[in-house]
Write a structure and sequence with these properties.
single chain; 243 residues; 12 helices; globular
Length: 243
C-alpha cells in the first residue's frame, strides 16, 4: 500500500525546493540514453518523476526526499526512453509537431491554446487533432509504477535506497519564476484535464475507470491525458528559455 498523499501545499513546496535536481539528473544521464531522446524529453520525464516523488514521499521511511526524488526521476527517464525506443519515428514526428505548434501558440497567445486553435494552426480538423493525440498518447505516458520494481530481489524500492550525497547543483535558472510556473501548472489546465491527471497519477485509476468517473469515452480520456502532458512539456520548454 502506498503512503498517504501529502497535502498539496507540502507537495508544491517539495517540488519548488528541489527543482534544481531536474537539471542535475538530466545532466548525469545524458550519456546513458540514446540519441533519439532529447534533453527536452529527459527534462519532461524528470519533472514528472519529481512530481510523483512529492506525491508518494513518506517521511516515516527515514529516507531523504532528495534521494527518493533522484531515483524517481532516473526511473521516469528510463521508462520514457524504453517507450520512445519502440515507438515509430513517424509517431515521434507527430509528437514533435504537436509540441512545436503548442509552443508557438502559447508564446503568441500568452496562454495554453484551445483544441480548436491547435487544430487550426496545424491545418487539420478537430477530429484529426484528436486522432493525433490518441496516436501519440503512449509516447507521453510515463510508467510511474515501473520504477518501484527496479530494486534487486524484489525488495521494496525504498528499502534499497542509499543516501547518495552529491555536490549541490549550481543555480542556473530564475528560480522564482520557474517555481511559480510549476507550482501553479495544474491550475492552467482545463477542469477535465486536471481531473484526468489527478485520477490517473494520484488515484491510480485506469483510463477505462476514469472514463466511467467523468462520463466520457476512453478515447477522450486518452486525448485529455496526452494534451495535459503536452502542456506540461511546453511550459517546461518555455521556462527553460528563461534560464
Amino acid at each position: 500500500m502506498y503512503p498517504p498523499v501529502p497535502p498539496l501545499d507540502d507537495r508544491s513546496q517539495m517540488i519548488r525546493d528541489h527543482l534544481s535536481l531536474v537539471e542535475l539528473v538530466v545532466q548525469r544521464m545524458v550519456s546513458q540514453v540514446p540519441s533519439f531522446m532529447t534533453r527536452e524529453d529527459m527534462t519532461s520525464a524528470a519533472m514528472v518523476g519529481l512530481t510523483d516523488a512529492a506525491n508518494r514521499f513518506d517521511h516515516a521511511k527515514g529516507v531523504k526526499f532528495r534521494t527518493f526524488a533522484e531515483y524517481r526521476m532516473r526511473g521516469a527517464i528510463l521508462d520514457e526512453m524504453r517507450k520512445m525506443d519502440w515507438f515509430s519515428r513517424s509517431m515521434r514526428d507527430k509528437q514533435s509537431r504537436l509540441t512545436q505548434t503548442m509552443l508557438r501558440l502559447e508564446r503568441q497567445l500568452g496562454r495554453s491554446p484551445e483544441e480548436d486553435e491547435m487544430a487550426a494552426a496545424m491545418n487539420i480538423s478537430l477530429e484529426e487533432y484528436h486522432t493525433m493525440l490518441n496516436q501519440v498518447s503512449h509516447l507521453g505516458c510515463v510508467s510511474l509504477h515501473e520504477t518501484l520494481d527496479h530494486s534487486p530481489e524484489g525488495r521494496n524500492f525504498l528499502d534499497s535506497l542509499e543516501d547518495m550525497a552529491g555536490p549541490a547543483p549550481m543555480e542556473r535558472i530564475e528560480k522564482e519564476e520557474l517555481s511559480y510556473l510549476l507550482a501553479d501548472i495544474l491550475e492552467e489546465l482545463s477542469e477535465k484535464e486536471r481531473l484526468v491527471i489527478a485520477l490517473y497519477y494520484y488515484e491510480e485509476l485506469t483510463q477505462k475507470e476514469i472514463a466511467e468517473v467523468i462520463s466520457v469515452s476512453e478515447g477522450r480520456v486518452s486525448q485529455l491525458h496526452s494534451q495535459a502532458l503536452l502542456k506540461l512539456k511546453v511550459k517546461l520548454l518555455n521556462s527553460a528559455a528563461w534560464a
